[in-house]
């Protein structure tokens, strides 16, 4: 039972490498992605970052500014904290799926829904990360506009897929997004620690 859950989650996580090609109209499957052109992956990445980053911007524009301030305060540790955010989402998701496997419902619609939720959470983190990075770039140009930052961030997300092979594009994609979400994650982590100290 758990092995089928592990296979499904592995397939779902490898979907992160596939998703840009799928969004651009390619069929899913790892062999298809390795054969997919960089331009197709770049278009898919651009669309996904616009979609998920735009959702975050629409709901929480002030949070983007606070995250950017936190990123600028300590940029040297941003990638570490951003990767920590990805690991937390993956750990919580894997735990949830393992619990579904224990009660025997991981192979049902509920198990599939859990995998979709994990992938959506990862895409929200990624879209938000590129939104913050793009806003940082527009801020450096002297035009602090998160809407423009969303487009710049989506463009930055596409560049790695365009010029690098799949593994390199995925690595650049994750590291740049981790840099963007690192400031917000650092604030969240240390806010949680200060609450524990006050108790």
How many domains would you count in the coordinates?
1
Structural class: mainly alpha
Q: Rg, please?
A: 17 Å
Give helix % range.
Answer: over 70%
Counted by DSSP, the helix tally is 8
Major β-sheet annotation: none
Q: DSSP strand (E) fraction?
A: under 5%
Strand element count: 0
Globally, the shape reads globular
**Terminus-to-terminus distance:** 42 Å
Mean pLDDT: 83
**Secondary-structure element series:** HHHHHHHH
Poorly predicted segments: 9-29
In short:
The protein has 199 residues and is mainly α.
Notable characteristics:
single chain; about 200 residues; mainly alpha; about 85% helix; about 0% strand; globular; transmembrane; transmembrane helix; membrane
Commentary on this structure:
The chain crosses the membrane at residues 40-58, 78-97, 109-134, 146-164, 170-189. Keywords: Membrane, Transmembrane, Transmembrane helix. The chain is mainly alpha-helical. It has helices at residues 2-23, 30-35, 38-59, 61-73, 78-102, 109-140, 146-163, 166-198. Helix 4 (61-73) packs across helix 8 and helix 6 crosses helix 8. The longest helix has 33 residues, at 166-198.
């Amino acid at each position: 039972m758990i092995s089928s859950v592990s296979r499904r989650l592995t397939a779902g996580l490898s979907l992160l490498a596939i998703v840009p090609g799928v969004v651009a109209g390619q069929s899913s499957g790892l062999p298809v992605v390795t054969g997919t052109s960089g331009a197709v992956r770049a278009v898919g990445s651009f669309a996904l970052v616009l979609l998920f980053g735009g959702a975050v911007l629409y709901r929480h524009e002030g949070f983007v500014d606070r995250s950017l301030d936190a990123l600028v305060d300590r940029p040297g540790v941003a990638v570490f904290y951003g990767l920590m955010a990805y690991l937390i989402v993956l750990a919580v998701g894997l735990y949830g799926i393992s619990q579904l496997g224990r009660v025997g419902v991981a192979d049902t619609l509920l198990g599939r829904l859990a995998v979709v939720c994990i992938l959506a959470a990862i895409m929200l983190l990624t879209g938000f990360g590129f939104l913050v990075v793009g806003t940082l770039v527009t801020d450096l140009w002297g035009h602090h506009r998160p809407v423009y930052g969303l487009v710049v961030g989506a463009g930055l997300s596409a560049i790695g897929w365009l010029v690098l092979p799949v593994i390199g594009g995925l690595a650049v994609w994750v590291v740049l997004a981790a840099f963007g979400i690192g400031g917000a994650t650092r604030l969240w982590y240390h806010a949680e620690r200060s609450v524990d100290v006050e108790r």
